[in-house]
Amino acid sequence: MTSTHTGTPQSPGGSAADAAEEPDGGMQRGLKNRHLQLIAIGGSIGTGLFLGSGKLISVSGPSIILVYLVIGFFVFFIMRALGELLLSNLHYKTFGDIAKDMLGPWAGFFVSWNDWFSWVIACVADIVAITAYVQWFNPHIPAWVPALITALVLTVLNLQPVKFFGETEFWFAIVKIVAILGLIAVGIILMATQFTSPDGTTTSVTNLWTHGGLFPMGASGFVLGFQMGIFSFIGVELVGTAAAETQSPRKTLPKAINSIVVRILIFYIGALVVIMSVTPWDEISPDKSPFVATLATAGFGLAAVVIQLVVLTSAASSANSGLYSGTRMLFGLAKDGHAPRKFALTDRHGVPRRSVFFTCVFLFAAIPLLFAGDGVIAAFTFVSSMCATLILFTWGSIVVSYIVYRKRHPDRHAASVFKMPLSRVAPWLVLGFFVFIAGTLLYGADTRASILAAPVWFILLTVLWQLRKRRLIKEGRPLTGAIPTVAHPLDDE
Predict the structure, then answer these.
(1) d(CA 286, CA 275)
(2) Residue (of 485, 453, 318, 430) closest to 77 by Cα position
(3) How far apart are CA 57 and CA 65, in angstroms?
(4) What are the pLDDT digits (tens) for 54-87?
(5) What pTM was estimated for this model as a whole?
(6) Which of 40, 89, 188, 415 is the most exposed place for a label (fewest CB within 10 A)?
(7) DSSP secondary structure string, 296-338?
(8) Are 307 and 292 in contact (CB under 8 A)?
């Protein structure tokens, strides 16, 4: 029978090996530097880029390049704030830990449950995308079949030790990186040789502005691009969750975060420039992956099939990462008393199995969703916009926590070797940007429903917090778990 652990510190009688193996209360630090670096890269290359960029291009035209640059600019500051916070106290495991320490127990409850729910929704979006990819190969396959198989496979994958997760994501990320770099290389060759497609279109970077200019849809199209554009970046914060199970966070975390700029320039800007140089933006179908369409247009039929397999793998990778993050967040909630205690139990490999099973139940919601709307893309748009709405709250909590941290712990900030750039001004600029994003979600007809539904979720959270708070007080338990202030064992590395 599998043994379980409650996540309490080792007793004096425990072995030194055990204490070293589980210094973080049940979960094991099984991720190495190469895992964290590739998780950071893979987390920023998700379904939103591979599938959602087709619709974004149809809405914004070439200005989508500027949209990604602007979003990437602010995401970098969010991640630098998160990096400084995490390294200020290695006892932080999740954003919820940071929020409860800086803002109060209620904030830990809200942030953690919201992040868990947003990842459930993101996983559902990925499963919907996987269904679209599978039906590209055979449209006669019932939509529920790939959705069901994916949900079951994800469950099995997340029941494995964290080292297995890291290795899986490592190779998933390698596949995505090679595919995008290959696409960019092919595009450069086509531009250099002035390749002409069967329909008479010549591959050239001038296609970016000769089909109505850089802003063919005007200011309205540019603004609408931010709606789903923000979804493409969901997952970059996964590096913060993974840091809790990384062997050398002080060395690996700064490297992973600082590489964000290069990743955005190569994988987002580079890929989109190539795509719209090969195929003019007004000829790209919003219902298909532009990566596949680009290679098919160029006459690389077999390569298009390979890319389709890659984007399918990418969606599986995104879902796998999202499920990992969600289960770890639920594990933290249980340890804080904000979720049933059983979710804090881990097996002998440090895997919170009950958290995994509970979270995976919700993945099957993707199946009825596929039959509720006007198609896969419509379902993907609704789910991804809902996820984008919720992630604004998670990212906002990081920024607000940073503002409080900087005021409350000026000594920590001064001693930090990984300070957030422009730390006095940047957090407020980021919060202003979030207000702008919320406005774009309200502005778009496809995304308005998601942001209007968000208050219902937060009202529910308010009710649940009051009920949980009363129960904790009645039982004489603290409103949340304490964050240690003593030196972490890894501070000596």
Answers:
(1) 13
(2) 430
(3) 9
(4) 778 888 889 989 998 999 899 999 999 998 998 8
(5) 0.81
(6) 415
(7) HHTT-HHHHHHHHHHHHHHHHHHHHHHHHHHHHHHHHHHHTTS
(8) yes
